[in-house]
């Protein structure tokens, strides 16, 4: 092969990789920059990333086996600051993580898919999250986050 053939193949690979990143990686940006019907004063990213009772948040775009695109959010609850989700109220609690999943629709909108809480106990055992939580309960949890309230 000539040198130009290698350059063309390399460029095509780069374009393909960047195209996939726009679809998958762009989903995180879409959800983070989007708003929810119950409160359009903050973006989803502003509300979750700046919630005063989260120690750390992680966002990930995922494509499921059947092609569904989702954005998964894992937020570590700061058990030193949270008034009720802490070792004083729950002596066996080591850590807690609130998880959300937003589903990307074909029309490029998104919606809440599920939420749940994962807990690690001091003995190392883990509980949850259950992915069949009531969406009304999940929406109320998000409303608490938007208000920066400990009631989540």
Characterization of this structure:
The chain has 152 residues and is of the alpha+beta class. The protein has one domain. It is 32% helix and 30% strand. The chain has 3 helices and 5 strands. It has helices spanning 3-33, 44-49, 135-146, and strands at 54-63, 69-77, 93-104, 110-121, 126-127. The protein has a 5-stranded antiparallel β-sheet, with helices on one face. The chain is globular. 16% of the residues are buried. The model is unreliable at 18-22 (pLDDT under 50).
How would you describe this structure in keywords?
152 residues, alpha+beta, 5-stranded antiparallel β-sheet, globular
Write the layout of secondary structure elements.
Blueprint: H1 3-33, H2 44-49, E1 54-63, E2 69-77, E3 93-104, E4 110-121, E5 126-127, H3 135-146
Antiparallel strand pairs: 1-2, 2-3, 3-4, 4-5
